[in-house]
């Protein structure tokens, strides 16, 4: 008996190609986010950002900066995916965070303006030379 080979339909071929394209985009996003982590880590740990940050550890999840960087890297990945038009669960959270940060900046600017309204003059006292 002869075997009957089922050839994929045009729709099946297009779906398969679409999945390959999305997988490629997703890989680009992940690779890009990891690359930026390595770049940031290099600049921070070599003191190029500021010497105070040299000892930051982004590879040990028991320290807060590592957990923070984990979130940052995943947000970068989500940003890249948004650029491609791919949905990501963090997009809504990023939109909320954007609004929150803008509000914080606005509050900070308002507080600075209020401080500027006060005429506070600080004159340091002369040191005692009673030594």
Give the structure's gist in a few sentences:
The protein is mainly alpha-helical and 131 residues long. The protein has helices at residues 10-45, 64-84, 90-117. It has three helices and no strands.
Walk me through this protein's architecture:
This protein is mainly α and about 130 residues long. It has a domain at about 15-90. The protein has 3 helices and no strands. α1 (about 10-45) runs antiparallel to α2. The chain is elongated, with a radius of gyration of 26 Å. The protein starts with 9 loop residues before the first helix and ends in a 14-residue tail after the last helix. The mean pLDDT is about 90.
Topology:
Blueprint: H1 10-45, H2 64-84, H3 90-117
Report strand %: under 5%
Number of strands: 0
Categorize the overall geometry.
elongated
The helix/strand class is mainly alpha
Oligomeric state, counting identical vs distinct chains: single chain
H/E series: HHH
- End-to-end span in angstroms? 111 Å
Main sheet, how many strands, which sense, barrel? none
C-alpha-based Rg, rounded: 26 Å
Arithmetic mean of pLDDT: 90
**Residues in helices, as a percent range:** 55-70%
Contiguous helical run count: 3
Low-confidence stretches: none
